[in-house]
């Protein structure tokens, strides 16, 4: 069988789509709206710190975030091709997936930093 | 109800016009008349130069596809009264080059169909003496939906990916590949996969879903394409992650 | 008709740049695809949130205060709306994209959709329990 990279990227895209659909609503609601706006009392710093310094949290969040970034980059790439009819396919692809690499590095830094 | 409806028809005469223009005709608004009846009325009574394709008048031959009010439709199955009081716009199928008036160039589609090898492929043909390939009702049901396609190309006219990238193999051809893959008599799935795994194959699709919405035969090409993506992905993972023995 | 002549004279209609503004279904499609930007943004936001938590009590409080600024709240409300759009469209398209069989019988689409919402409820409950308990 021929080797093509598309099927693998598509699997990551789909996996990221599923995870985003399942996890993002509650994460976005709690951390981006409910806590900052005081709809729900934000958890104490100690409690959150205990959660994010757990290595398991690091692993789960790292996996979750990176796959969701792949999902977003892959989808946005096609939006640029089709929605804006940008023809520079290689350039757009490089920028989008390159952004994922940068994002994955940031995940490592920020999540890792909070684990210590 | 008014007894007439205005039909705005896109006209393009390749020898005279540099680009398509509009011509208006008032035709009788009868409850049993379709857009195709209106065009035939124009052609017979008003303007015999109007060019369009049709044959069966009953949604079987797939030759009368047009964009009616911006939607790809079989003009023989689209009733004028649904657009009353009008006017109703009739254009050639979107995404295809216009040959003349409402006639489009379908060569590209005809070139793509055989690419997916839409016929039963056997590793080894049975001889006639061995008898026929039997199939149970369940096995028939597995692919029946995808065998209903009438090649009307409405799905291509609805697909923005095809409009923007004419290399894309497109909805009906992939649905047809799925039709043969799901056929219990067929053994050609691997060959079709090799065609469709390419960039202009299934992965060009962004699941807009318009093909399925406009399909007059409920073929669901969008579903076929997504399932093909999953199938191609599963096969790829198997082929490159598992040692040979486990495939 | 000779091929060359036919090719030369047939008219190719250009696709307008804003083709997706012309039809409602196309517009909804592009909005669905644009949810990707907001997913990426929320990942970044959550990363910054975690970083603030890791930097201690004061940084955490500062972050919460910053996140209550009108700009960020507006952005996050929009982002949340797009997430909801993503979740709804993703769930409703799944039955089309995959055939699930249980003991030889095809599971009806509505059951697949219901299953996904059940999973959403479970995940939501778990995360809420973890964070709020
Ligand atoms: S899949 Fe449907 S819309 Fe497309 S060509 Fe076949 S019958 Fe027509
Ligand atoms: S004329 Fe045959 S499908 Fe309309």
Q: Could you explain the architecture of this structure?
A:
The complex is a heterotrimer of chains A (116), B (247) and C (133). With 116 residues, chain A is mainly α. Chain A has helices at 6-34, 45-52, 55-83, 89-115. Chain A has one domain (12-114): Fumarate reductase/succinate dehydrogenase, transmembrane subunit (3 helical TM bundles of succinate and fumarate reductases), CATH 1.20.1300.10. Chain B has two domains: 4-104, Beta-grasp domain (Ubiquitin-like (UB roll)), CATH 3.10.20.30; 107-246, Alpha-helical ferredoxin (Fumarate Reductase Iron-sulfur Protein, Chain B, domain 2, Orthogonal Bundle), CATH 1.10.1060. In chain B, a hairpin with a 2-residue loop joins β6 and β7 (103-104). In chain B, α6 packs across α9 (221-241). The longest helix of chain B has 21 residues, at 221-241. The N and C termini of chain B lie far apart (67 Å). Chain C has a single domain, classed as Fumarate reductase/succinate dehydrogenase, transmembrane subunit (3 helical TM bundles of succinate and fumarate reductases, Up-down Bundle). Helices cover 76% and strands 3% of the residues of chain C. A two-stranded antiparallel sheet of chain C has the order 1-2. In chain C, β1 (101-102) and β2 (105-106) form a beta hairpin. In chain C, α2 (24-54) packs antiparallel against α3, α2 (24-54) packs across α4 and α4 runs antiparallel to α5 (109-132). The interface between A and C is large, with 55 and 53 residues. The structure holds iron/sulfur cluster (SF4) and FE2/S2 (inorganic) cluster.
Structural class of chain B: alpha+beta
Strand content of chain A: under 5%
- In spatial order, strands of the major sheet of chain B run 2-1-5-3-4
Largest sheet of chain A: none
Per CATH, the architecture of the largest domain in chain B is Orthogonal Bundle
Low-confidence stretches of chain A: none
CATH homology superfamily name of the largest domain in chain B? Alpha-helical ferredoxin
> What is the CATH superfamily classification of chain A?
Fumarate reductase/succinate dehydrogenase, transmembrane subunit
């Amino acid at each position: 069988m021929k080797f093509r990279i598309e099927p693998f990227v598509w699997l990551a895209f789909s996996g990221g789509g599923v995870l985003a659909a399942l996890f993002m609503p509650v994460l976005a609601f709690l951390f981006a709206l409910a806590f900052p706006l005081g709809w729900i009392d934000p958890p104490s710093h100690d409690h959150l710190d205990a959660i994010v310094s757990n290595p398991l949290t690091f692993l789960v969040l790292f996996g979750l975030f990176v796959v969701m970034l792949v999902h977003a980059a892959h989808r946005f790439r096609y939006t640029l091709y089709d929605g804006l009819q940008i023809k520079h396919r290689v350039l757009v692809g490089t920028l989008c997936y390159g952004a994922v690499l940068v994002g994955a590095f940031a995940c490592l830094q920020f999540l890792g930093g909070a684990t210590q | 109800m008014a007894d007439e409806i205005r039909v705005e028809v896109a006209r393009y005469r390749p020898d005279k016009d540099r680009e398509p223009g509009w011509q208006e005709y008032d035709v009788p608004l009868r409850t049993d008349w379709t857009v195709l009846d209106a065009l035939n009325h124009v052609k017979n009574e008003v303007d015999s130069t109007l060019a369009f394709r049709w044959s069966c008048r009953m949604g079987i031959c797939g030759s009368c596809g047009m964009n009616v009010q911006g939607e790809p439709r079989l003009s023989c199955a689209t009733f004028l009264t649904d657009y009353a009081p009008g006017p109703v716009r009739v254009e050639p199928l979107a995404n295809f080059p216009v040959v003349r008036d409402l006639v489009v160039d379908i060569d590209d589609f005809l070139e793509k169909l055989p690419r997916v090898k839409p016929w039963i492929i056997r590793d080894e043909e049975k001889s006639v003496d061995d008898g026929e390939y039997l199939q149970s009702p369940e096995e028939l049901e597995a692919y029946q939906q995808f065998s209903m396609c009438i090649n009307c190309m409405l799905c291509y006219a609805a697909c923005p990916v095809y409009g923007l990238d004419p290399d894309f193999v497109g909805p009906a051809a992939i649905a047809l590949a799925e039709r043969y893959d799901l056929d219990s008599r067929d053994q050609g799935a691997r060959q079709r996969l090799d065609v469709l795994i390419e960039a202009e194959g299934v992965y060009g699709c962004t699941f807009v879903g318009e093909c399925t919405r406009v399909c007059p035969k409920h073929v669901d090409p969008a579903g076929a394409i997504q399932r093909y993506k999953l199938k191609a992905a599963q096969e790829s993972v198997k082929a490159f992650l598992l040692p040979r023995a486990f495939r | 008709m000779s091929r060359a002549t036919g090719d030369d004279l047939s008219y190719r209609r250009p696709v307008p740049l804003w083709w997706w503004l012309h039809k409602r279904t196309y517009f909804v499609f592009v909005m669905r695809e644009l949810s990707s930007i907001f997913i990426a943004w929320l990942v970044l936001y959550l990363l910054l949130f975690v970083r603030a938590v890791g930097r201690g009590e004061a940084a955490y409080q500062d972050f919460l205060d910053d996140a209550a600024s009108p700009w960020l709240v507006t952005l996050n409300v929009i982002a949340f709306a797009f997430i909801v759009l993503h979740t709804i469209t993703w769930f409703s398209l799944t039955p089309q994209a995959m055939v699930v069989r249980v003991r030889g019988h095809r599971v009806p689409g509505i059951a697949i959709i219901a299953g996904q919402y059940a999973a959403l409820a479970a995940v939501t409950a778990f995360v809420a329990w973890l964070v709020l308990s």
